[in-house]
Amino acid sequence: MAIPRFDLWRDIADLQERVARLLEESFPTYERKKEVWIPPADVVEDEKEIVVFLDLPGVDQKNIEISVSGDQVTVKGERKPLDGEVRFLRQERVYGPFSRAFALRVPVDVDRVTATYRNGVLEIRLPKVEEQRARRIVIQES
Fold this sequence. Notes:
Layout: H1 8-26, E1 41-45, E2 49-55, E3 64-69, E4 72-79, E5 96-103, E6 114-118, E7 121-127
Antiparallel strand pairs: 1-2, 2-7, 3-4, 4-5, 6-7
């Protein structure tokens, strides 16, 4: 029997979405105010690197900021609302700023970190620092 996967942030976002829909349907004058947008992410690791995949559909690449500091990588950005006056018949997408931080359990080579953004998916590759190998020190005669 498979154990169900628990994702606290996704569960919070789903609950928030359900409450917003309930309020919209129950009270036609309800308008969504400052909602928190938590883009879904996958973080994978192998022997050589850690890779973060972040779903950011509708986010302009210019509005994404990535930083690596100490033992974490942080991604910040904003999904801008539609331009001009728009009368929504239904609004389910969340707009506005977001921020995600991911703890890295191993040191990474900050100078070799790369990021690509294709089809609304941000991919951040964080190469691990090669382990320092022990070496024998020879004592020189004086």
